[in-house]
Design goal:
- The protein folds into two domains: 65 residues, Multidrug-efflux Transporter Regulator, Chain: A, Domain 2, CATH 1.10.1660.10; 246 residues, D-Maltodextrin-Binding Protein, domain 2, CATH 3.40.190.10.
- The protein is elongated and about 90 Å long.
- A hairpin with a 2-residue loop joins strand 2 and strand 3.
- It contains 15 helices and 14 strands.
């Protein structure tokens, strides 16, 4: 054991006569200042076995191992791990149980942070939309369309809206939400909808909130998952069989969980397959692109529309495993918001959009959209080549 002239001197200093260059040593006060912690907190960590200082004449002396350990503790606490979880990770870091617990906690935190990030992005989009509206010339004409996030995430709006404006002079402000949220408009928060949940669409119109529902286009859903396919669903044409095998294998499945058209279809498939969801099923509350990004991080299965999948660049280990089931056809519809419910609805301008979108000019723009040469949306009645 090294001795020191005084605990008040820097215990990290190296004696010039000592050629072995000992590691830095810190008193409890120095360590507390370094990490902005109280002495009581350090003593508590020591009592829990997380720190192991040496003793020298009654002084606690902390080495680099303690510094590294404390750095790990602070990082883990910041990421949401409890102290008992941190202790288990540190004290029994190689056991399979500990590794599994750590992985599950990491997945939950990834989901939580992705959800928060999604909320921040949505809030930013809303603020930018409000700011854009407030800075537009008063004579500029525009409508607001509530639409599913999958159309935005696939890049279709970025492609067709400039074409529409060039033809009509109208701007379209898109509010991208799940179809369920699109139906739940309040105070006339939209002039038209572009959604993909037929049950919800018919209910919206039947209750007098919407007018003149029209088919616009369709694509399809696919089930993507890890390339090693632990559930063994590769090549299946029956989505319910694929979901049963995922449930039986108890492998991670990432669900949007946002009451979107995609989420509603997925839940109907689970129900029709008589599957009880368990701990392997992760509800994210996210749009399609965010859900895919989380599924990539989790190496999980998920249901996605093909267009958003094709637009995703960071697929890593995921690939399409199940496709081609007629139950996975994904039709989209345009609905006008009823101005008798909300007088501020711009029904005349909305009709221009509605008509353009569902007749030759709009359909030609939609089907001309490609990603790497692949046609992603098809007009009603056309059979996809997928």
């Amino acid at each position: 054991m090294k001795t020191y002239d005084s605990p008040e001197r820097s215990l990290g200093a190296v004696d010039s006569s000592d050629q072995s260059a000992p590691e830095p040593v810190f008193t409890i006060r120095e360590l507390a200042r370094r990490f902005n912690l109280s002495l009581r907190a350090l003593r508590f960590y020591e009592s829990r076995g997380l720190l192991s200082p040496e003793r020298n004449n009654g002084w606690r002396l902390y080495g680099q191992k303690d510094v590294d350990r404390l750095t790990s503790i602070m990082k883990a606490k910041k990421l949401g791990f409890t102290l008992s979880e941190i202790r288990q990770m540190i004290m029994d870091e190689t056991s399979k149980q500990t590794l599994q617990i750590t992985r599950e906690k990491c997945l939950k935190q990834i989901s939580h942070l992705e959800r928060k990030l999604g909320e921040i992005k949505d809030a930013l989009a809303e603020l930018r939309a409000i700011n854009e509206l407030s800075t537009r010339p008063t004579e500029e004409r525009f409508i607001t369309v509530r639409s599913t996030t999958s159309i935005r995430d696939s890049g279709l709006f970025d492609y067709i809206l400039p074409i529409f404006k060039a033809m009509t002079g109208l701007n379209v402000q898109v509010v991208a939400v799940g179809s369920g949220q699109a139906f739940a408009i309040e105070r006339g928060g939209a002039d038209a909808l572009l959604v993909h949940d037929r049950i919800g669409e018919d209910k919206f119109v039947a209750e007098g909130f919407g007018l003149n529902r029209r088919d616009v286009m369709y694509n399809d859903f696919v089930i993507v998952g890890p390339s090693d396919d632990p559930a063994g669903i590769r090549g299946l044409k029956d989505a319910k069989v694929a979901l049963r095998q995922i449930a039986t294998a108890k492998v991670p499945f990432a669900s949007r969980g946002d009451d979107s058209g995609t989420n509603r279809l997925e839940l109907r498939l689970w129900k029709s397959a008589s599957i009880v969801l368990g701990g392997w099923y992760h509800v994210l509350g996210q749009g399609m692109r965010s859900t895919l990004n989380i599924a990539v991080a989790m190496n999980a299965y998920t249901l996605t529309d093909r267009a958003t999948w094709e637009s995703l660049k960071n697929r890593q280990n995921l690939e399409i495993l199940t496709e081609g089931d007629p139950a996975l056809v994904n039709p989209y519809a345009s609905i006008l918001v009823n101005p008798t419910k909300w007088p501020q609805v711009k029904i005349n301008e909305a009709r221009i959009w509605h008509e353009w979108l569902t007749t030759k000019p709009g359909l030609e723009a939609i089907i001309s959209y490609r990603i790497e040469g692949k046609e992603l949306y098809f007009p009603p009645g056309k059979q996809s080549t997928h």
